[in-house]
């Protein structure tokens, strides 16, 4: 393992944690936790930013009568978040580790007291060897206090904690020169932050709960974080050993570095 890596923020998107029928995938979650345990043994702390609460709520509640989009998100996430944590808590415990839930809204990153509180909470958990599992507090974050998506939350956490790497795990192997399913598209291994790669972004047809981000927002976040000297990756969360391989500097996914 690279000796200069001590802290890694890993963000895992809804699409990684679910199958095409929007059901939570236990084996994927387990493989993520296994890798966190491998890094833990090497004294590398992982802060996990996990999406999935809305889809986990939908899996339980199915269709609901509420029409208002914001209230639907509040209801689904409130039911789904403890469900996600139940999965994580059990799996992390199976690996002999401990985890904690840290929910936040954008206001918690405002400079001053809010930000200091956030730092104290994360640093406290990390100092006890506890794995923080973060998500947006979707039950209370509305309009002004909302993150654009969890990619933004992950980036803010990486900056807050002075992380050595940010790894954004999605359902694609990285950034492609076109649609990932097109035969002509090629993966881009490395992006320098001044390069115009936004032209490669394809439109998406996601429905409610299947994540908020999209590739455009991922690129913005990846470039912004890399510009703060935190090397950032977009990689496939369903690929075995992906986090450990990235920490070992293997050529995996798309790496974003400052020019
Ligand atoms: N040029 C591109 N290269 C790779 N993926 C792309 C590209 N353009 C659009 N995408 C889409 O971006 C999606 C990943 O972003 P997103 O849906 O936000 O994932 P997540 O739920 O993991 O946050 C992929 O499923 C892929 O179809
Ligand atoms: N906070 C929401 C996810 C929002 C989000 O950014 O989703 P994604 O684009 O899949 O990372 C949830 O837990 O369902």
Brief account:
With 259 residues, the chain is of the alpha/beta class. The chain is 38% helix and 17% strand. Strand 3 (99-104), helix 5 and strand 4 (131-136) form a beta-alpha-beta unit.
Describe the structure.
- It catalyses: L-glutamate + ATP = L-glutamyl 5-phosphate + ADP.
- GO terms for molecular function: ATP binding; glutamate 5-kinase activity.
- Pathway: Amino-acid biosynthesis; L-proline biosynthesis; L-glutamate 5-semialdehyde from L-glutamate: step 1/2.
- Catalyzes the transfer of a phosphate group to glutamate to form L-glutamate 5-phosphate.
- With 259 residues, the protein is of the alpha/beta class.
- Strands 3-4-2-1-5-7-8-6 form an eight-stranded mixed sheet, sandwiched between helices.
- Helix 2 crosses helix 4.
- The protein is globular.
- 41% of the residues are buried.
- The mean pLDDT is 94.
- The structure holds adenosine-5'-diphosphate and ligand VHF.
- Adenosine-5'-diphosphate binds next to helix 1 and helix 7.
